[in-house]
Amino acid sequence: MNYIHKIIIVFFSAMLISACSNKPKTVVDERKPEKIAIDSTIKKKESIEGFYETQPDPNSTEECAISVEILKAKNGYSYVLKTKLRKLKGIASFTKNESGEKYITLEGIKWDEFEGDISREEESDSTETDHKELEIPVGIDASYVKDTLTIQNYGNSMNSYTKISECGRKYIQLIKK
Predict the structure, then answer these.
(1) Radius of gyration (Cα) for the chain, nearest Å?
(2) Could you report the per-residue pLDDT of 11-32, keeping only the tens digit for each?
(3) For site-directed labelling of 46, which of 7, 30, 117, 148 has its Cα 20 to 30 A away?
(4) Predicted model pTM
(5) What backbone phi and psi angles, to 5 degrees, belong to 97?
């Protein structure tokens, strides 16, 4: 064999040995997921799946009969929300914030009223604001702790909104049955 052939064989042999001895490096995704799988956040004994409903308020005569059923679906969870005026169905998604608080979003439900954040009205140009229609948000968030879903149903004078007008409570608590 001539000298050049030997160098080529040694070079390719070294490349082959080097390639075989290098193990693939594990890639770690450092991004924090916004939506997380329910199984990784809630223990089996604390399953989100089930039937939740409001309880009578002894301090109020106002009726607030709302129920939410969370159902296991193929690709996650779905919900059925019932009030005295409507029955809505959709996808339920879950999030967990940086402090570990768990939230469920009932996707696809349009808020009943939304006037927006009026604390900045003086800062903005009034002619520009007059021409823009506020888009009503869609999706109702509820915090999830043990067996209770809590929805902040309305805001205040600086941020006026109502999510579910069938209930006059500021915080709607739905307790698991």
Answers:
(1) 27
(2) 656 554 555 554 444 444 443 4
(3) 30
(4) 0.67
(5) -85, 180
